[in-house]
Amino acid sequence: MKKDAAVSEVVGTVLLFCLVVTAAGIFALFAADIVSEQAETMPAVSIQESASRYYLYHAGGDTLRKSDIRIYSQSTDITEKTRINGEPWEFWKTGDLLYLSVNYPSNTITVVGRTSAGREVLLFEGLRQ
Hints:
By secondary structure, the protein is α+β, with helices and mostly antiparallel strands. The chain has two domains: 1-37; 45-127. It has one helix at residues 2-35, and strands spanning 45-50, 53-58, 64-65, 69-73, 76-77, 91-92, 97-100, 108-114, 120-127. The strands form three sheets. Strands 5-4-8-9 form a four-stranded antiparallel sheet, with no helix packed on it. A three-stranded antiparallel sheet has the order 1-2-7, with no helix packed on it. 11% of the residues are buried.
C-alpha cells in the first residue's frame, strides 16, 4: 500500500508541473504576439524648393492619411492648406510632394505624424530657405 500512495503523489506532482509549464507557454505566446507587433515605418520627409514654391517630399515609408498628420508653420496648423498636384488630398504616399504656400509668416515647418497606436512622431522640423 505504501508504494501506491507514493506513486499517486509523484503522478500528482508531474501533472501539476505539466499544468504550470503549459500555462507559462500560453502566456509566453500571448506576450510574444504583443511584443512582435509589426513596427510601422514612418516616412522620411524633406523640404524642397522649386520656382519659389516649397514642397514637403515623402521620401519613403508608410502612406499617411491626412487625419494622421499635422503640418505646422510655427504654431499655425496649415495641413488643410497643403495640396498634392494642386488638389486636396487624403493620402500622402512615397514620392508625393505636398505644396506649401510661400506666404506663411514663419519659415519654420514642423510635420507631426500619428502611428496606428496613437503615438505622435516628429517627421520633420526645419526652416524654409
